[in-house]
């Protein structure tokens, strides 16, 4: 069993009368790429800020690398790299100067060469001396990632790292995260609204809603418990719907267009459905079964 | 070690911020204008001041010398300098919050207390640079342009004439007390900066407090008699005590003590607030 890198137990935080986080618990194992999901205002950002000691929770415990963030803050932060919300740097300083300033505060000796290499690594080679204020949003994100990785942290917290990036940039960041996990065995926490991204990259996840952790676990295992969504393109939609409803009276069929419908179904029953439709003389032009994190997420959040 | 690096970072940030040079530029322009005015028509001003003494005293030698010019400049500018200091130090904390860089800073392995103290230190270094520049522009440039001589100071007790050889150490002492007073302004603005995420608010509030205290200090109303000795602005003028004869040592000691207490209180409040602060920006 993997070592727990992060263990958060029942944290809560109020801002005045507003309960931003009511009861959030989860753990992250070493080497996980851990998805952190939740709708806007769910308490994700507050939870991440509590983890990084930017906000002090009213109750609960946060242990990272087996130590409490409240008592071993500097030790934990020296092994952690993070981007929280958008990466903001000093507008009047160059990319190089910004990284140099933050590198001085890390407990690792980082020279000019390392900074240049890191800027090159994130695709900012040649722009080292350009001021941060002249950067596009995507370039700012890349600089944020460079800052996060510069001191070679064991734990990386990325809050919406692909926001504002072009498609190539998104793919680059995704590949970078996978490389960090596979080649360097880093632990990554990834907060994102892009559910497809989480589904592709993460092995474990937690969903937070209204300040409470709703579900936590292995992404594939959680998804396997769910019905597939089956989309059928048919020669006779109405006849097909009548047939399906006669066999599965409680099933919810969604009309997609004049020839297509969508319905939830267990994997094992799809071939049987296919057979029944063919036997009833209905032509099947296409059949597509998919399992979407998006549907799972909406189901969990609305539960 | 990380504390030293953090101080260095803060100094670099101040040095590379264009706003930091406003104070230096303002002093250069203001002192330049005063020096030009005194060079062109200084003697008529001096004659106006000395006319009331001419029946009992005769003035010989270079009355309008560098020492007097420096004294005039300090007297005219020492009220404005706090505003120039607050302009830079007032957003040392809140500016980070407004820019969003506070999130990055406070996720580095340095304690909040160390980070804040490094900002106080950087604010102190900036204040020192401003004071040294003011000293250079007033005393050195004054002596270069107007030569040297005995210093004639008119205060509430009458005319004080200080020997040329007796002046330099008084300027040094005066500048040190002025530095302490301006460092207190810097501490006040950094302290206010800990309460908000707004970059401009602490600067305006510091200026308003100094203005209010100056008015309270100037108004001859008995209600304020008990608070006046403890106001920061009362002791901002203590540099003048170094140009009295005999030297009012007890008054100078009191001023230094009160300014030090102000600094200790302001820094302590700042550390408490900054450590408790939730970073939501």
Write out key terms for the chains shown:
heterodimer; A: 303 residues; alpha/beta; Rossmann fold; Alpha-Beta Plaits; 2 domains; six-stranded mixed β-sheet; four-stranded antiparallel β-sheet; 11 helices; 28% strand; B: 281 residues; mainly alpha; two-stranded antiparallel sheet; 68% helix
Could you characterize what this model shows?
The complex is a heterodimer of chains A (303) and B (281). Chain A has 303 residues and is of the alpha/beta class. Chain A folds into 2 domains: 4-219, P-loop containing nucleotide triphosphate hydrolases (Rossmann fold); 226-302, Alpha-Beta Plaits, CATH 3.30.70. In chain A, 35% of the residues lie in helices and 28% in strands. Chain A contains 11 helices and 14 strands. In chain A, the strands form 3 sheets. Chain A has a 6-stranded mixed β-sheet, with helices on both faces. In chain A, strands 2-1-4-5 form a 4-stranded antiparallel β-sheet, covered by helices on one side. Chain A has a 4-stranded antiparallel β-sheet with strand order 12-13-11-14. Chain B has 281 residues and is mainly alpha-helical. Chain B has helices at residues 2-16, 20-50, 66-77, 81-89, 94-99, 101-105, 112-146, 168-193, 201-218, 232-236, 249-276; strands at residues 151-155, 158-162. Chain B has a two-stranded antiparallel sheet with strand order 1-2. In chain B, strand 1 (151-155) and strand 2 (158-162) form a beta hairpin. Chain B starts with a helix and ends in a 5-residue tail after the last helix. Chain A binds chain B through residues 15, 49, 52-56, 73-75, 77-78, 80, 82, 84-93, 97, 101-102, 104-107, 147, and chain B through 2, 5-6, 8-9, 12-13, 16-18, 99-101, 103-111, 276, 278-280.
